[in-house]
């Protein structure tokens, strides 16, 4: 069974060959290395995945690279999380159950938008604007 390491906070110039060379110089084994790139620009996104042959090797890679200095930054290495299905929402962090929508990144109330130069929300004399609003008005 293989294990995957997430290697983050990489400078954009780092390539898979660079990472492979670092692994070889430390006698570490990897089945594959993939630097994640922006599909449009092909510039590195600053992180990579290293496929280790087993959990023991994965832990050795993590110990070697986590918080290792490179240029003016510290690298981050930890076990990779399984990919989320497309469109999946992240689970709410623990301790956030009582947080308000605004604290969780929800859209601010309309009044806040007006202060930032957005369009003013006006009701028209003609009543509800959408089919949903009409159904809601009937239900109330």
Quick structural overview:
This protein has helices at 16-25, 55-65, 110-115, 131-139; strands at 3-8, 32-37, 44-52, 69-70, 73-74, 76-79. The protein has 140 residues and is of the alpha+beta class.
The percentage of residues in β strands lies in: 15-25%
CATH architecture of the domain at 3-79: 2-Layer Sandwich
- CATH topology title of the domain at 3-79: Alpha-Beta Plaits
Residue ranges: pLDDT <50 for 5 or more in a row?
110-116, 118-122
Rg, rounded, reads 24 Å
Structural class: alpha+beta
How would you describe the shape? Answer: elongated
Which class of the domain at 3-79 in CATH terms?
A: Alpha Beta
State the separation between the terminal residues, measured CA to CA.
Answer: 58 Å
Number of helices: 4
Classify the helix fraction into a percent range.
25-40%
* Sheet having the most strands: 4 strands, antiparallel
